[in-house]
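hiii so um. not sure if this is the right channel but i have a protein structure encoded as tokens and i wanna go backwards to a sequence. like what aa goes where. can anyone help
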């Protein structure tokens, strides 16, 4: 059976309900909790003992029904010291102290909420009284009500004391216990983004605290799109700040590390946010500017090839030719690859899928800007010479059909070198078969009129003209033997070029001789 009791604490009084079988010790705990709930504007109290209306102290081990009657008045003896004595079990006293501590936390966070909203109270003056220390404790509370209110206080105070706020954010993101309730990490990350966006000072302090790596560690654990977007936007702001604040390295002896970890850049490059792509690709260019910077950025990473393959995967899976930012970022990707390949031979792409993507950029049907096509062709020169496969033959021929001179030059060079090598007879045979086709062979003949492509194209045609069908097309279909004669006597062609022209004429003469013999026999 439950009974009502009137409790008096100093000048305050209120009513509580308790079970007759409860001990007076548990009654004191209920009275403390009820006081904190009723009188929220007042500090919680720690009740050390209770007396009846006659002033007689009641032992805490007694049962309520033994000494109290319904609607009786009881009086609390309040002490600022923790309630602990020989008459009460130690653990019971500790439980009451813990309950009192939670009540104090709730009181403090409610007090801070009220004061930070009071126009009379200046927040800098409040923080000067140590409010941030109290707030730091409250933000690590396991009580969701306290934590939510503490986040509200943090939002109002964070721009006033940037240093303390940056340290608090860093500590909060480092905790292993972010509540399962998605509200807390989402709100915390939203506040961090707001704080970061408010001032350069905030960005600088957060970078110094190394908060980027902690944000990356949260990527897989956040449960709402808002939280993921906040991480992305914050990292973008931080990297933009690092980019603006970076200074060029003066010498090889300078030991300062690059401004951001490579994994942060790779994370942002997977973003669909144009700002993130722009900032991260600019930073990637800076890291690849010198061999020293790139070596520092690659520390602990698997290989350049894996990173570059991932870059091309990002571009191939989401970039559009009609999107200006996408094309600018793709151009930076290719520029970085070219730069790194200049001082790191291991950076040459070997992944067949990545090479296929580069071939699509430089093909005759490509709608990419001519600068992108030219950059892709230069990278293909390196990759195909080392890792070219039979599957890439059609792509090479498609480059040959491209009207961009730079792309055609590269295609001609690579095809000529591949046909000279004997390591891959299957690839050589497939290339010759494709180059013998009438439309492709016509393009090859036309390219003899371009001085930059003439030398290597003669080398290619000398291999192709070993086939009778190819010779017949040149002699009968195209009727361009005179072109080879003019090349043979062209003073602007070097000795090797004239030698190649003579060899081609010899092959064509063989075909003409065979035609004459056939005519005589018939």
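sure thing!! here u go:
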């Amino acid at each position: 059976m439950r009974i009502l009791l009137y409790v008096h604490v100093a000048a305050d009084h209120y009513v509580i309900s308790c079970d007759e079988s409860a001990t007076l010790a548990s009654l004191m705990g209920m009275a403390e909790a009820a006081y904190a709930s009723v009188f929220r504007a007042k500090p919680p109290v720690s009740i050390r003992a209770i007396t009846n209306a006659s002033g007689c102290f009641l032992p805490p081990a007694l049962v309520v029904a033994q000494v109290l009657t319904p609607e009786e008045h009881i009086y609390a003896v309040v002490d600022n010291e923790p309630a602990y004595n020989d008459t009460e079990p130690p653990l019971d006293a500790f439980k009451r102290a813990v309950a009192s501590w939670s009540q104090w936390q709730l009181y403090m966070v409610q007090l801070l909420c009220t004061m930070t909203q009071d126009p009379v109270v200046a927040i800098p003056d409040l923080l000067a009284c140590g409010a941030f220390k109290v707030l730091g404790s409250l933000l690590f509370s396991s009580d969701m009500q306290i934590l939510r209110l503490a986040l509200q206080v943090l939002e109002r105070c964070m721009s006033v004391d940037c240093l303390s706020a940056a340290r608090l954010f860093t500590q909060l993101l480092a905790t292993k216990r972010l509540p399962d309730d998605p509200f807390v990490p989402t709100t915390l990350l939203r506040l961090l983004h707001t704080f970061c966006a408010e001032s350069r000072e905030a960005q600088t302090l957060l970078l110094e605290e190394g908060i980027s790596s902690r944000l990356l560690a949260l990527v897989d654990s956040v449960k709402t799109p808002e939280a993921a977007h906040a991480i992305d936007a914050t990292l973008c702001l931080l990297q933009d700040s690092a980019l603006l604040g970076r200074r060029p390295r003066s010498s090889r002896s300078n030991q300062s590390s690059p401004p951001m970890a490579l994994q942060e850049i790779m994370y942002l490059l997977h973003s669909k946010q144009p700002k993130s792509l722009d900032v991260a690709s600019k930073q990637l260019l800076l890291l690849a500017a010198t061999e020293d910077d790139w070596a520092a950025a690659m520390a602990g990473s698997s290989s350049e090839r894996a990173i570059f393959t991932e870059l091309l995967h990002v571009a191939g899976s989401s970039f559009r030719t009609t999107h200006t930012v996408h094309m600018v970022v793709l151009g930076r990707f290719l520029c970085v690859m070219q730069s790194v390949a200049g001082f790191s031979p291991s950076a040459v792409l070997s992944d067949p899928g990545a090479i296929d993507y580069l071939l699509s950029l430089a093909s005759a049907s490509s709608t990419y800007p001519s600068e992108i096509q030219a950059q892709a062709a230069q990278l293909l020169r390196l990759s195909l010479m080392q890792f070219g496969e039979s599957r890439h033959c059609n792509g090479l021929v498609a480059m040959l059909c491209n009207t961009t001179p730079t792309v055609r030059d590269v295609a001609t060079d690579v095809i000529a070198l591949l046909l000279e090598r004997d390591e891959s007879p299957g690839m050589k045979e497939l290339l010759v078969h494709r180059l013998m086709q009438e439309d492709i062979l016509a393009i090859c003949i036309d390219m003899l009129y371009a001085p930059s492509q003439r030398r290597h194209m003669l080398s290619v045609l000398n291999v192709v003209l070993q086939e009778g069908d190819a010779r017949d097309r040149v002699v009968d279909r195209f009727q361009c033997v005179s072109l080879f004669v003019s090349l043979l006597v062209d003073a602007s062609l070097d000795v090797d070029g004239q030698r190649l022209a003579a060899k081609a004429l010899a092959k064509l003469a063989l075909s003409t001789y065979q035609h004459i013999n056939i005519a005589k026999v018939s």
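oh and The radius of gyration is 40 Å.
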